[in-house]
Amino acid sequence: MTELKFDGYAATWCPGCGDWGIRVGIKAALEQLAFDPSQVFLSFDIGCSGNMNDFLNGYATHGLHGRAIPTAIGMKIANHKMTTIVIGGDGGIYGEGGNHFLHACRGNHDITVIVHDNMVYGLTTGQVAPTAGKGYRSKSTPHGIIEVPVNPLALALTQGATFVSQSFAGDARTTIDVIKKAVNHKGFSLVNILQPCVTFNKINTYQYYLKNTYHLEDSHNRSNLGKAVEKSLEVNAGKFPIGVLYQTERPSFHEELEQLDSPLVDRPRFSDFSSFTNEFI
Fold first, then answer.
1. pLDDT of res. 276
2. How far is C-alpha 262 from the chain's CA centre?
3. Which of 97, 85, 145 lies closest to 120, judged by CA?
4. CA 223, CA 162: separation in Å to the nearest integer?
5. Which of 1, 38, 157, 263 is the most buried (most CB within 10 A)?
6. Rounded CA gap, 181 and 177, in Å?
7. Whole-model pTM above 0.85?
8. How far apart are CA 202 and CA 69, in angstroms?
9. φ, ψ of residue 223 in degrees (nearest 5)
10. In this model, does residue 50 exceed pLDDT 50?
11. pLDDT tens-place string over residues 62-78
12. Strand partners, 44
């Protein structure tokens, strides 16, 4: 089999992994928005999703597992002129980082969070993740998971996120469109991407999502929170809405901090970085 590479780096994702489609979606969206790499902060979580760090060009960092969101918040507060994007899996964002996720929604931090939602921890060989359905069997739950799944859309909606959307890794066109809208939105944006794990999740496959996803109609009222919550709960019936469920406007976190009238990096204290670091040497 021919080895697939990006810019000289060998890709480590399994052939057919949904990460390929998500990478195409993010890269194409940023290119179509005409972003220069120097205009974007990228905060990666740990896991298969984090391997995308090698394949996207921008100011990027790997956080600790579950800590990609607070890292991005720090980036945004330090230089809120920069577009800031979090890329992580359902385990890192909704599991280990669940507390950070809900408080970022509450604060309406001006970041875009793109989640690879495949219902398993793929990098560590398929243990159950927070979005897996009750009864799902994995290496960590051989008799089936006891808990009910986290509903990321409903969680974001009820905790104050001002942009909530969902896409499917097998639908590149919609993924690109939704990511562009999320990045352009001022405030906290969630893009939950249904991502088949072809190696460890044999239930939520491409065929499964092609059968059970549907695109929201143009007539869907994105400003109606109640309707958005209603749509988010359709997952209980095995239906997955695709598109922008909800969008509203309110001041983002950094805009409500009077002391952040200008980015921290523009302050005189940081103009000569060597003098700043000398304080700690």
1. 63
2. 27
3. 145
4. 10
5. 157
6. 6
7. yes
8. 29
9. -90, 0
10. yes
11. 888 999 999 999 999 98
12. 62, 87
pLDDT for the residue 95: 95
Percent of the chain with pLDDT over 90: 78
Asked whether 183 and 195 are in contact (CB, 8 A), the reply is no
The type of residue at 249 is E
- Per-domain residue ranges for the chain? 5-278
CA–CA separation, 50 and 58 (whole Å): 14
- Using a CB cutoff of 8 Å and minimum separation of 24, what contacts does 257-264 make? 257/77, 260/77, 260/80, 263/78, 263/79, 263/80, 263/81, 264/77, 264/78, 264/79
- Taking 50 as the threshold, does the pLDDT of residue 1 lie above it? no
The CATH class, in words, for 5-278 is alpha beta
Predicted confidence band at 226 (pLDDT cuts at 50, 70, 90)? very high
State the pLDDT at residue 2. Answer: 44
Measured CA angle at 239 (ends 158, 144), to 5 deg? 85
Q: What is the mean pLDDT of the chain?
A: 91
